[in-house]
């Protein structure tokens, strides 16, 4: 028997008061200092959000328990946990409480961002493989987080890990529909359901459970077990299906249904079509995350959760910004947000807030300036209006007199919509000190806040 101290973030830094060893042991090459790491740990969730989302982020941050990350509060929690450890009453390890508080703080902000129709990740929390009895509680917690639950009718799509009898019962009690794949669990399915051996393609068997939900067996390339509370089993919908690769289990019906055709129309059950449609959001969220996920081997327990928080905020931030700028690609967004995050970390570490070191270089600096043209088919405003600190964008006198970029934007929109009353375009001699575009006095604030 032995005693092991579980890791926390301070364990991977040497003495922070020692000026000769103020660097992260495992990342000496990139020189990530302890203070910079604490900055990322505490503030990364608002570092690369565009300024037009300030109200959303601030509302979320107000609900977060920011005092959790204060040094005095953390020290008090550590002393409390040490006292409890001496009494042998600790149910969760020390690092779990820190991670749980960290995740709660992130969720308070991310919930606002994820209410955007294009967002997929809504809420998350750490769960362990040993907590096998908490599946229903986990689902109930996520359902309680849904916005406007009393006004809207939600349907939750799940895979077979979550579709337990208790989950289905509690979900119905919360007036939320459920559809998902299912697995055979002890004492759940009736014996006559288990005895079905029909292997004909696209056949559906339904069993009405006494708790008022439906368990179904459908044959596709293999047996698919489904559970639903919103279908009757009679719904069908025609869908074009590509010819699957032949295997030992589907060889007969592939030849019978597809023959030599690469695609045929098949009437599939409505529950299957709904499940494929709703689970597509989960698959797409995983796809977005996997594109630029950090490929790091982590031995520290908190680092994968920390990186996953970054991934979720990255994906949701990209989807929110992309909703206003259709031409923005994922890679450009990551490069821009990373640059802003690093610049602010440097400013935080050096104690500088308004110095030029905290401001990214203006777009096109050091290069030949390109002429800006406002598209009449798809008018867009430059993304530089969201970069840097708000204090870096000042209305100052310009060396040249040019057309106001926001007036040109309104004119292009009016022409695109076919309006007859076209707005007047001013030609001010003042510009934004950061964006380097001419702006009239009336449109300076609107330009830096509109989406």
TrEMBL record:
This protein's superkingdom? Eukaryota
Which residue ranges does the record assign to the PiggyBac transposable element-derived protein domain?
A: 151-318
Instruction: Using the UniProt annotation, give all residue ranges assigned to the region (Disordered).
Output: 352-378
Q: Which InterPro entries match?
A: PGBD
Alphabetical list of Pfam families matching this protein:
DDE_Tnp_1_7 (PF13843)
Per its record, how is this protein called by name?
Transposase IS4
Source organism per UniProt: Nitzschia inconspicua
